[in-house]
User: Fold these one by one.
Assistant:
Number 1:
Amino acid sequence: MGGKSCKLIIKTYLEKGVFSGAAKALHQAALPSGAKNFATMGTKLFDGVNGAPNSLSKSFFQIKNGQYFRTPNDREQKYDNTFSPARHVTLAFWLQVAPQAKAPNAELFAYGGKESDNFYRTGFGCVTKDISDTDDTKCYFIMVFDQNSRTEYFHTYAEANFIKLRQAFMDNQWAHTVIMLTTRNPGFVPDVATGEGCPSNELLGGNACYGSLHLWINKGEVGLVDWNEGTDTTYAKAWNDAVVSKIWEKKQDRVDGLMVERRFFVSPVQSCEGNDVNSCGEVNLNNLKWAFPWGGSYKTGIWFCDMTAVASGNGGFGNEARRVIARDAFFDIMSESKALSCAHTTSGDAAVVNDVASSDPPPTRL
């Protein structure tokens, strides 16, 4: 096309792609072997279910109790606002901690249908309510996954990480966050010979398919500490087993005798009291509630902006060198639109839009 800018790509598509019937990306495609394969295509997670309907912009949203994004049905087209679970999956977004009434501690993400479905459970917290450039400001992530042999717990509560997160989030700054789940040997085609490694979402034998987890803030790596060991930050990059496959293979499944529909939650509901056993927080066919013992959802503003999910059945972004290139590309591309996408008030207080109370304050008009 003679260039790679967003403006040029959109211009080319509108002038040529629409009229030539350019193909659309599908959520999943069946390979000749019958195996399922995820298209390597990002989906913007903007307008979640149970979010505030009166916000003037959907590129940002405040984390609320029980928000979730729909999971596509098997082999249907992949639409916006859906989350595709996969062994190779990347989340890229801007994260902001607004002024807090008390120290923020709660669950950021959770994918599943019940408490025993621990795929992609992620929490974020700080030990103080104000994030400033002082030695006593400590913020951290917690991540939990179910593997075949046990549940893996990781955290970032370590001195080496505190300064990185403090500098990223202090003064209510937006911090660019990339979380990448892949395999020990992703098997991306240019990296290995055909048939080697673990590029697909099939549960293959051997340790090539064992899990590998990565976290970057503003392009800087944040060490994920093995909870079971205490200080080690190398184990997260090469687990001792694979993430259970049934969680991404089935949207609806029977878990512990209960039929559930798995969804990607932004801070699951706090309690299931008063609801049917299969309708936690009044979400049909789901019984997932918060897992970390902090008291439920955030009470004031924790914000996402320009959140993107990329699922893959082709080895994700490949080996370490390729993952770094992908990380930098996310940062550079998303930085271009940050001034527009993330411009809004973040006082943490409810705003009134069209005389209706909303937890999402309107953006600043430019």
Note: The chain has one domain: 42-349.
Number 2:
Amino acid sequence: MLKKIIYLFFVSLLLFCLNLPAQDQKPFGKNVKILFLHHSTGENIWNGGVEKWFNQYNKKNNLNYEIRETAFPNDPYDWANYPYDYWLLWVKNAGKGHKGQPTLEKLTKDYQVIIWKHCFPGSTIEEDIGKPSVQSDVKSLENYKLQYTALKKKMKEFPQVRFIVWTLALELKGNIDEAQAKRARAFVDWVKNEWDEKGDNIYIWDFYAFESEQGLFFQKKYAAGDGDAHPNAAFAKKVAPVFCKRILDVIEGRGDTGNIMGQ
């Protein structure tokens, strides 16, 4: 009887812990170095006023949150920044480097916050074939999930660093079909609801939600041009401040309790 009571007690305690609300984490200090890795979509958002926002916030609050951006991967690597590429550079070639690209072992020595994302061709997700491979550059849900699982494990090796991952940038209607768009949404849902975990050092910024506005495609009104899925200047100016606020949440310990859209 005593063993049964003890067993039930620990089961109840475990269930209680699993249902506890997310807790704020310890904030970083006054000096924080932030790195934003991106290609052209990210550059457009950056140009919407990210650096200016942080300069003003620092001045107002006597802080030194230093944010910089860089294209990643860049020459001589192919212009591709999809799940496969991050897996190849940071997991398969961990600690060694590949085609001149910095590893996480290197980046985490210099930055306390690292932000990474994919460009909109990442939403051209093809149908699964039932043979997932982490080493495949085919854009499919089954491959993406394996690559993200490996990337999460890798990022957790650096608990002193906080990572922010953008949800997928989207293509315009006509550039991808409805089936691809539905798979893109399914991947985003998986990332937010299953892949992301409370209490670790990895956080989400839900860029997809801004671009899609609950639809399946990137909203045409936000596009840089006809058939061009890069965000226009007005959209970039609109979302840059909430991107900054999301970074701020992560820096100041509200990564799990703050809104993943930065609102």
Note: DSSP finds nine helices and seven strands in the chain.
Number 3:
Amino acid sequence: MGFRVRGLQRDEVEGFLACFQAAFGVDDPSLSIIRNSLVNDPYFRPERVRVGVMDGQIISHVVILHRPTWAGSQVIELAGITAVATHPDYQGRGYGTRVLRDALKLVRRWKYDVALVTTRVPGFFARLGFLEVPAVIGHQCPARGLERMRLSAEYQLAPLDYHQQWPTLAAIYREYSHQRTGMQYREDRFWETWPLRGTFPLGFSNEIGGMGLTAFLGGQMVAYLAAQMLPEIPHLSVTEFAHANDHPEAMLVLLQEAARRFLQRGGRRVMLYTGGAAPVLKLLEDREVPVEGHVAQGLMIAVTNRKWVRASGFGSVDEAIQNLFHSAIPVMWHRDGY
């Protein structure tokens, strides 16, 4: 039999994972995370995994993830392109290109507005219409600067218990993210299934290195923070946070407590994974905490349906892309990727 491209069949998950492992060289624990993140994704359907098959064996694959995202005042349909790979024994013969072309054809057929990918080989995707977009993915500040802030607001802090509190966390995120261009639109089933997938942030879980904190005022939760401080990472990574609209200063209280705990372990720098004009950044500036943006390369975008551009209030595709990646909250694809 020759090479052909089709959707994954339900009994082929292990065959897909075997090809993934050969292509990326991941260990078994990492492969288990990939398996969980795939089969427990609330939007997973086998046809979203496009596979190239030769003589009954999966030798190439592309995964299409469903990630609706705010753009201006509306939610657009964003397709995350990930797990683009070919088995080492079959590379260099164009099989990967054929599978990716098939995936992009379906992205357009399914009426996605945007396709997004992170990659170390931008030239490969540029040939298929993707544009590279350097994006601010986070901001660094000194942990000591956070510790020294003078705060007057009185919030009560408590550990974060995701399984008991996720509906409240979801409500806070929904309020915080509403109409913030670039932030993912998360339905309740996203929150319900998140612990089962591989992208669950440390701090929401009880794993070593995770730190989860919540802030209350008058008995009502108004903000939350999830962070990780692992030995191999030289900074405290604040990977997820949100606050009610009337309580941006609650984030300062949470950041200060997180910094204090981090400093006790000898840490120095804090990385906030947020965009360039999040309210907390202005509050840090007002308190003279030096904040430095961190720009990452390798993020690429293809606009597959242009109808949303003017409907979202943008004058052109270039303006829309500029707003997606340099607005108050750029797309945080590293967080909600695989």
Note: Residues 162-177 form the longest helix (16 residues).
Number 4:
Amino acid sequence: MPTFHGKILIVKLSALGDVIASTGLITQLKKENPECTIKHLVMSQCKIVTQNLEQVDEVIEIPLIPSGNIIVDIKNTAFLLLKLMNERFDIAIILHRSILLQVICKIAGIKRLIGYKTKASILLSEFAEFSMIGNRSVQEVVLVKKAKLISREPERLSFQIDEARINFDKLKFLPNNFIVINPGGGNPHAPAINKQWPENLWVKFINQCPLQVVMIGNGNEDQVISDKISKKAMPFINLVNKTNLHESAFILKKSSVYVGNDSAMLYLAAAIGGVRCIGLYGPTNASAFKPLGANQISIQGESFCSPCYSSMDGIKGRMYTCSDNICMKSISVEQVLQYTEKYLNE
């Protein structure tokens, strides 16, 4: 297959875990088209994922949209349009089911648009159906394969740690062997509380854990959860809201095992490579949301209604409206400890 030499725009705006999930596609695209220029359009809060990725030539960042202020959103969209018009991209790969993004790219003069089928997919040069069945990172690869820009699948996700952004004095007290956990999940647009393993089960896990536990995470929700757990659990190293993403990645790389819900930290752990991960799933389907890469154990909560999440439904879907996440409650501490000890024994 001949390689492409032009300018490619990857449109993957957010959230943090979703952007990390797309890094496999980006690295494979550059691997098979080494002479092309790849630029990534992303929201500011997620630019940290690809700004150090060697396969990305430039990150084009935009503020959080929607911001809650329609005037600000219109202004930011206008600036984005001008930027894209000046860039003169040959191809835009739009990894969102968004008619608006398709229209913006078309107005910006990008002739070849590749994306998921929508009601207005007449603007797309090549498209594929989006489905909740099958791994979402692989679906993106299939989309770009259809456009004949790549021929093979990536082996894993990618994140490049920038040691210049790490305060090593802050991390010098880390033990030689430890387990990392993150009890949070969700994003600014959609806090997914029902994806979280219950606090009382985290407490039991920490109390029975064979190694020292280090907790990481960021945001108000993670802080609230960590505060509640710290009041009941045996002492652990609580670094919630005390590390940036590069410091969190460094901690994960040094860890013996990572345990967490279906969230950005699980994807970050998988993207570093070599980290042994245990992912906890309930409303989301592990087969669809398991990160690419080796060393992945997925525990799927069992209930009559699980998995119930569909991105087609948005925040009105069952995962967000459910009043009792029995699927996550069905995952026992014994299950998680069993797999943790299995990894440690290896």
Note: The chain has 14 helices and twelve strands.
